[in-house]
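Fold this complex.
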Amino acid sequence: MADITLRINGSERKVSVSPETPLLWVLRDTLELTGTKFGCGAGLCGACTVHVDGAAVRSCSTPVAQVAGKVVMTIEGLGANGLHVLQQAWIAEEVPQCGYCQTGQIMSAAALLAKTPNPTDDEITQAMNGNLCRCGTYERIRKAVHRAAGNGGSR
Amino acid sequence: MSPLSRREFVAAGAAAGAGLVVGFYLPHKLSPRNGGVFSPNAYLRITPDNKVTIVVARSEMGQGVRTALPMILAEELEADWKQIEIEQAGASTLFGDQTTGGSASIRTTWDPMRKAGAAAREMLISAAALTWSVPRSTCAAENSRIKHAASGRSLSYGELVGKAATLPIPTDVPLKQSKDYKIVGQRLPRVDSPSKVKGEAIFGIDFRIPGMKFALLSRCPVIGGKVASFDDKESKKISGVSYVGKISDSAVAVVADSVWSAMEGRRVLNVTWDDGPNKDLNTAAVMASLKQAASKKGPSLFLAGEPTKAAGRRISAEYELPFMAHAPMEPGNCTAYYQGTKCELWAPTQIPQDCRDSVAPAIGLDPDQVKVNVTLMGGGFGRRLEHDYAVEAALVSKAINAPVKVIWTREDDMRFSTYRPASLHQLSATVDGSGFPVALTHRIISPSISGQKGQPTPGNVDPDLPDEAGPVYGLPNYSVEYVMSETPVPLGWMRSVYALQAAFALESFIDELAVSEGKDPLQYRLHLLAKDQDLQYFTTTWHTARMRAVLQLAAEKAGWDKPLAAGHYRGVACFGSFASYMAEVVEITMENGEPRVHHVVAVVDCGQVVNPSILEQQIQGGIVYALGNALRAKITIEKGRVVQGNFDDYAPVRMNETPVVEVYAVPSTEVPTGIGEPSVPPLAPALCNAIYAATKKRIRALPILNS
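Structure:
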């Protein structure tokens, strides 16, 4: 066990966990931030995507000790000050079906738009291809990313 | 799941009508205890503050029932949609069978929900007429108010509940004409989108109660094997692990105060397995058993004329399909709290009643001592019709005498699933001088899902086949036959169930016939559907005219008669399942010997559409799901074990493989039919027919990339 200080969604949180615990389980079990989802545990599906220092990472495969001192943002932080433009676009395009993967999808899209405000179809595919959706919402995800980009992309 | 439950429900759907209404009315007398709530039936409550609550008795697994079902009731109620609140029912005795499957939620709730709304509307009109002492006929319901046009007076539903609740509940209520619909048929936004994009939606895996532990189970990797012994010494060294114990013949539970500790505890757990009778089972043996069973004669599912006596040229082919896994995004999980004489569960379940009835005997309680709350589901696709995970959670909670959440990993989900049955299909046709079949025989050889579970299979017919393997074409001599084989591999109902297999075989074969006669595959099908015929198949009547119409519309929208870009090829298929008609045209290119699907035109006739946006979701999603099934989905068995474990060796479609899907629904005011599954079956044959057009190579076994 180790005491680790995390910077999550703009506030400092101290946790006492074993340092190899994946960030995903610290978020979900210790901090009760359950918007970040468990899908595969192996970095294959993207349901657990969060931002670490602005980059999209798979929290299921990231030991919590690796993010000590870094800036972590989860879906709860993305929309903390009102709906993010991507969340608005997701609602407008009626993207979610079961919705389980969508928080991870939105976090991947947010990392994309932060770097590439007006992505092409190919850039969207490249950024989003690591995120699985068994409901098959990919077409509407693509439309929602374009819609958000058209609205200015990142805030 | 318990015997009959799924089948009874679907049978009720086929006869959608008054039957389901019986018994669903509740006592509605006002009393101080219920705070003046007007609740003429179990689906609806209106309170004096004008709050209208509609209860959804089916489970939300992404298919939009929490939006679409209330729309049906709200339409007849003349309710203000913006003020509706939705409540999810748990396992109940008030709604009939609550099974969420068989593409049946809309088609079986259409009548009860309409009548529930209409009865309330009529009572509210009567209450207003009495209040104003005016004839009922001069009052009208609109936007959650009753209005009296002549005097300009109006009262809100909330203001009328006191009086309405004292009135008798009408039994024979007028229903609206579809031309007057204001809510049904509209692209209303789903009620669950905002919470899902914010990460606030609570799925089964997210639900927690104070003091709750987390458990993972180590299950025997060999099908049918058991725990011989286990050593928990290393597991108990893991910080946070509080309990390790055998909870069933085939599983040892590791309980901890976090998921990660339970995972670590399970990783180092040492179990010795008794592999049992299937330790040498492999996929080749399974497929060989299908071939062996094919020599048997089976019951007839459909018969017209005398196919064996037709004269002409004979063409035959065999098709094979593998086991497949549902793999919903949210792995299996359930929260249970056993407390001696009662047990409460929070379950992502497609059948709360079966969840209750499966759990109760496992922990020595009566069903009425088990309360099942239905959580949101991260996909279902049929996997959550089974309640192995709920039984496990209840057993672990009983063992530790504390609330617990059992979580499955992805590998658990893949290796301990219930699989779409592998099947073999023998097709043969007799073709006349003009090149069209005068006789067609389709023999389906497959193990039975219901049969394996000990549920009734009257006449040796799997009870799902009546919804999923019907005839498409009105041929003079036509036989569909079913041979029930056996397998120890656990079987389950996976999206579209047997329709995927039946359509792949039949619609590939029709293409083979067309091609062998040098005819255009689309025109060939239209010719076979040219005559208006009603094909009676169990309780469903298939109309060739409706199938012809969807096929024609698909051809028109896909520009079938127009040339394609160089290197592009098309395939078409049509199939009816869950009482809906579906045609799909798939456009591909071949890249390095593999198909790339660019575009799919999908046309459905599913009767009255309730919400076109949700319909599009279901069809687009069904096609992406079906594309993954067709390209790569294959569960194999070696040494009695499922080989595949995660999304690397069982790889669903990702964004880069997703085609543009155009969706069209034939305008209709017929009673709504299924929409969650019918888009799945035509995709694989349409794709394989396109591959043939491109390569002259016929694919007779799925998955495509394995052939």
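Residues 102-115 of chain A form the longest helix (14 residues).
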